[in-house]
Hints:
The structure is a homodimer.
Chain A: H1 14-23, E1 27-29, E2 41-43, H2 45-64, E3 69-70, E4 76-78, H3 79-85, H4 87-90, E5 92-97, E6 104-106, H5 107-125, H6 134-143, H7 155-166, H8 173-182, E7 198-201, E8 205-206, E9 217-219, H9 224-229, H10 231-237, E10 244-253, E11 268-278, H11 289-292, E12 296-300, H12 302-306, E13 313-316, H13 317-322, H14 329-345, E14 352-356, E15 368-376, E16 379-390, H15 392-401, E17 407-424, H16 426-433, H17 437-445, H18 449-462, E18 464-468, E19 476-480, E20 484-498, E21 501-508, H19 509-520, E22 521-524, E23 527-533, E24 544-548, H20 556-568, E25 573-575, H21 582-592, E26 596-600, H22 602-607, E27 609-614, E28 620-624, H23 625-636, H24 642-648, E29 651-652
Parallel strand pairs in A: 3-10, 12-14, 24-25, 24-26
Antiparallel strand pairs in A: 1-2, 4-9, 5-6, 5-7, 8-9, 10-11, 11-21, 12-13, 14-15, 15-16, 16-21, 17-20, 18-19, 22-23, 26-27, 27-28, 28-29
Amino acid sequence: MATSTTKTGAPLDRATFESLLRRRLFYTPAFEIYGGEKGLFDYGPPGCALQNNLVDIWRKHFVLEEDMLEVDCTQITPAAVFKTSGHVDKFADWMCKDPKSGEIFRADHLVEQVLEARLKGDKEARGQTVEIDQAKDAKRKKKKVKDVQAVQLDDAVVKEYEETLAKIDNYGGEELGQLIKKFDIKSPETGVDLEPPRAFNLMFQLTIGPSASTPNGYLRPETAQGQFLNFQKLLEFNQQSMPFASASVGKSFRNEISPRSGLLRVREFLMAEIEHFVDPESGKRHPRFAQVKDTKMTLLNRNVQLEGSTKAEELTIGEAVASKLVDNETLGYFLARIQMFLLRLGVDYSKLRFRQHMANEMAHYAADCWDAELRTSLGWIECVGCADRSAYDLTVHRNKTGASLFVRETRAEPLKIEEYQVDIDKKRFGPKFKKDAKAVEQAVEALSQELREKMSLELEKEGRITLDVPAVGNGKVELEKDLVKIEKRTRVEHVREYTPNVIEPSFGIGRILYSLIEHVYWSRPEDDARGVLSFPPPVAPTKVLLVPLSGSDDLRPYLQQLTYKLRRMGISSKIDDSSASIGKRYSRNDELGTPLGITVDFQTVKDNTVTLRDRDTTSQVRASEDEICAAAKAIVDGEETWEDVAKRLPKFEGQEVD
Amino acid sequence: MATSTTKTGAPLDRATFESLLRRRLFYTPAFEIYGGEKGLFDYGPPGCALQNNLVDIWRKHFVLEEDMLEVDCTQITPAAVFKTSGHVDKFADWMCKDPKSGEIFRADHLVEQVLEARLKGDKEARGQTVEIDQAKDAKRKKKKVKDVQAVQLDDAVVKEYEETLAKIDNYGGEELGQLIKKFDIKSPETGVDLEPPRAFNLMFQLTIGPSASTPNGYLRPETAQGQFLNFQKLLEFNQQSMPFASASVGKSFRNEISPRSGLLRVREFLMAEIEHFVDPESGKRHPRFAQVKDTKMTLLNRNVQLEGSTKAEELTIGEAVASKLVDNETLGYFLARIQMFLLRLGVDYSKLRFRQHMANEMAHYAADCWDAELRTSLGWIECVGCADRSAYDLTVHRNKTGASLFVRETRAEPLKIEEYQVDIDKKRFGPKFKKDAKAVEQAVEALSQELREKMSLELEKEGRITLDVPAVGNGKVELEKDLVKIEKRTRVEHVREYTPNVIEPSFGIGRILYSLIEHVYWSRPEDDARGVLSFPPPVAPTKVLLVPLSGSDDLRPYLQQLTYKLRRMGISSKIDDSSASIGKRYSRNDELGTPLGITVDFQTVKDNTVTLRDRDTTSQVRASEDEICAAAKAIVDGEETWEDVAKRLPKFEGQEVD
């Protein structure tokens, strides 16, 4: 893996980057004053505003644009639901215990880290330049993976390690145990043999109500189940019209064995999920697919990965669906829409790929699955999953509860079915068979189409047929043609019943947020200790910084008026009237990603003009307060760019800095 | 309590009202297909949109308007935090167990229900009209409170019951136990004596991580603690400037003993909380209090309640603060702002009151507390709490962890403190006292100002003083004036250190949402089976309904174009092209609270005009598509009312309905 880069292509220094996130309180380890709690993070004001903006844009891009039915279901869930869905049995990771120290390791992560360390040692021994992957290095140190030694490996071993790593997500518990033995992986803690991998269920258990003596519920690990359980009500709300999608934004929970990598593997996280319900017999075609079919995307397919490679190819989604690499139009439509969403947030296209899941890697319910992955200094991060869950969930819940989780649809064209039908002459049947009449009748009705065809010919030819009816007499019953008639006729079916399939785009908001910040991060060549976060204006936590040139009381009313005016225009602003120099105040807000700055100075008092500063270029224009507010609005709404505004309004070069 | 009424003053029929909420999927019992789980509700599309709008308006009204620092903290919380905050020990309700059936009752609710039933029986016996309180009636039936019998009570007993009910929230476990004995309350299930009240902690416990063998965490019962724990970071983010407020919107959890009343007592709920940190020495004055001081409010003070009455009085908040009924300006400011928020949502002023907590009713941390209560068919519902938590939380967490949860402030004017200071001649001290020197020195330093003053006189007069130093020799040490000097001097203090007090407005979004729907609900005299929800346009789940007059393909492009145009203006719309009549489609959307409807008809195809319909009056105007869209925007943004629009644009009386 190549070294990670900033927005401008310079090497990304993780320490500097992380110091910015801490300094500006984007997020912070939760409960730090209590020694912290692994895998839990709090969002500070800029992180929280950024998260709100991502959710808001998500709602506009998906829910409003596609008329989805947004619901908000509870996080606490009775155990029976996850028993049915399969999560109680299967939603687990594999963990190995060090029998000496009691420490617990996640099996796949351990194998991955040890093999990577050995490959690195091999490269060193061969005198090759070792790319420093800071994140993995830090992880290794933390986990005390001891064997980063310059030991050369056989070429065959190197190849085997590399192939194992490419497939690491594809192994189950038993296979991981075999790999640990085969590669002689010991506890990084104590060097002893680890216990064999054991499944650890990732759901948090809890007890609902005062009278239960044992846990009877879970915190949901995904928002999906609540949407499935309400399917019938949503279909009715949608006036029985198919296809439709439900959507939900909310917290989910996974009791990770060893949380790591900041926001990327946490125990509580915000998800945004869509469940698009579609008729499986429609071929999963999508009416708006034509609108997206020329979208170019970087796709990494499953076969390439199974060969041990990570080489992706760029295709249009139209080509991918046509070649069946992506299974159907609906899945393809959502992959394209997911990409548009990510790009709208400011994600770097060159650091985005869609990776297909390998068979064993997929969740137990999925028929096909693609992840949108974003490249960061911590590697490729799965940020959005897009799975075809088939009819799995609706079927299992329907089977368990008997609820009508299906669609009854009046056929536009009634379906004509040619079939053999049986008529019984009941008046004669009763007197003839007496108490056996019912059993014989049932045996006749139960005849398959194939047998009916055969018997209809027999009746015509022989005038009688012989039937197996085990419950009656010697098990054989003879029927003459005055008792029964079998004819080929046409039946007309007006209503069709089916269980919809589900396409599920599922967004990890925290992972997107973290990766996005890396993608928009850079620093000015003249000041590389300070960063700049170039969020697109609609995404930025705050849109406009208001700075008075001095602390003079004369300037204050102008700031208040600007705040009020901008708020009425729906633009969030912050005043920084601290005593720091203008330059320092702007730098601080470059790190917060504030796209625009308005300076109020003594000229303002004279002629009511103010300056507007662009975060990315640091250039400024000067105009009347009204013109500047209008320009800010145009930029924040995405109707003009800075370049447009800079062409229209007079450049300003005065008032510099510290 | 008088019978509950609709927006137009007609009696509110709960069955009809609830059937509307179910029919339109505002919310629904969660996990219904699994038999349901008490106290958990899912929001369907209109409820979810309404909730999102409430939160959005809340953010604008509080967070943006007052520049609060919004954070998002985790729901999962380590046990140590709630141990310190007092929740592990004190956050409990009192429950009584029926020893025969095992059923559990919440003690205060049981007393309340039984006394109310007896009072009702008394009224019946006296031949008085009994107001039917449907909700309480339903509760009683459910809980099988058997003794609603027409039995007349002594006048003194009636008085005692009424006084007990007025103070019901003021009783602890022991007192509830005494009331149960005194009033001879038995298990409504079996008629046997109940076990004495036992505390049941309302927090959900859980186990974080794979290695803990017992629960080590809780789901938070309020969002506040996360804000307190981050106080130091937030103060720094705010550039050390005080006062400031943090804010948070998120789920909280209470494992209620017996959830009831739909959304009003649930186990998982959305809260929006503000923690306003203020210098206690500022007198808790508020710079913007003058802006709100003339706000009239309905206040029910604590003393009136302790006298067994519920008579509220209307005052301006300025009067209430001046008379110390409301303790301070900051508390008063927030009470007024809370009222403005609720009125902005569409709450009925005549069904809003602020009730002061009685001493025993307050949470363990509160110094004073007022609830905004909304009147509904289920009684007065506490929807917003506004507590003065004093310095309680920051102090206990600081004491426990040693974290700097306080403010260090450079004094504008350095403080001059007159005090007695002690100088020790260390050169002589050591040789004289040898190994005891330290202990003697400490004893001198520890002298109070009072003793110092006394000893300074003694030193002057006698030339020596005698000190108690228990650890040295016989416990007395004599010091001559060459060893020690005590003088009155002036010390200048430049920095002040203090723990802020906290004013906490805390909003139960679900309760507000439910009560609001009751307040805006009414039905047209000509069609009382169907309801209308008159949400103010910014609050309404969907703003505009688009209806084609017929299913003709000619009309479809106009609907698409309108959708697109409205979306660009930031207005959510829905198309209803179902086959129902225009009238039915409008009725459906009256029940969803959609304020505006645009009809596309064959005239549209000719001249591009459409009609705009007002939900509340059902009157319509007709104009060009652009004019209608602009009018819709003005109404949705609150810049024009329907009356304004109806004056400007030509009335339309055609196209009616069936």
